[in-house]
Amino acid sequence: MMRRCAVTGAGGYVGSRVVRHMRAHGWDVLALTRQHDAGRPGAVYYSLEGDVPREGLQGVEALVHCAYDFRPLARRDIWRVNVEGAARLFKAARQAGVQRIVCVSSVSAYDGCQSLYGQAKLAIEQEALDAYGLVVRPGLVYGKDAGGMLGALNRVMASAKVVPLISDGSWMMYLVYEDDLCDLICRLCGMNGAQKPRVITAASSSGKSFRELLSELARAHGNNPVFIPVPWRIVWLGLRLLETLGIGVGFRSDSVLGLVYPVPQPSFRELHAFGMKFRDFSPTLLK
Question: Are 16 and 36 in contact (CB under 8 A)?
């Protein structure tokens, strides 16, 4: 009999990769998603703002929580949707007898983080740990046809001749190849017996500065752009103004805070305890 897991945020970049990987490794996966494919075989509609669908946890052995709604901008709305939604989900999972909860967070979540995204993820982590779950903090996720921030950066660096660089771009970025991340999540879901709640940083320990990352992406496309440093507060204020006016440009002011106030030094102790070492970033893995 196939083991069964449920994956929230199955329509997003990371969630869709987790679904594909788990199915390839013999799991019966129920995709919980608010995307257009909800209702298809193997998929159920789920929104963080609503209750957990009863059929979404029936016979489920492991729950992987990848969903996060980026649409709310105010703190109270972010907490109402994402933090309270996660708390309802984990409670329902425990009541349904789900044996393993794996919460996909972010390296942006750490004590003292400045971004609302990082603070919300930190609060969600605590909800997961309180439910005896395991927390995975991925770095910047990349892979073939990458989505998210790395995918957007790659598209820009393919052709841009002039690139505004927030401050000097010296802050460190930690990256994780999508297959490595999915392999870790699959292993965590398949573990037998009780596991202590823990936080696992999922990324290569070899970080790159933001400027180095952009340069490598550009070179992979045969591009050689000119970087123009821009004070981060100007970028942040400009984006805040656009958000106030209801104008979206695909990059949020809160993301600027996440960039200029990155995690000081992530710990890879828990990752190494699993005997895993993630591959270092290479632009060739985007193709």
Answer: no
Among all chains, which residue has been given the structure tokens 């392999």? 183
Angle between helices 13-24 and 178-190 (to 10 degrees): 60
Q: How much is the pTM?
A: 0.93
Question: Which residue has tokens 């297959």?
Answer: 179
DSSP H or E stretch at residue 89: helix 84-95
What does the alpha-carbon distance between residue 12 and residue 26 come to, in Å, rounded to a whole number? 21
Supply the range of the domain harboring residue 198: 3-284
Q: Which pLDDT tens digit goes with each residue over 183-241?
A: 999 999 999 877 889 999 999 999 999 999 999 999 999 999 999 999 999 999 999 99
On whether the CB atoms of residues 135 and 100 are closer than 8 A, the answer is: no
Whole-angstrom Cα distance, residue 209 to residue 225?
17
Environment class of residue 221 by beta-carbon count within 10 Å: exposed (0-12), middle (13-18) or buried (19+)? middle
Total tally of structural domains belonging to the chain: 1
* Structural Rg of the chain based on CA atoms: 19
Please report, for the domain that includes residue 202, its CATH number.
Answer: 3.40.50.720
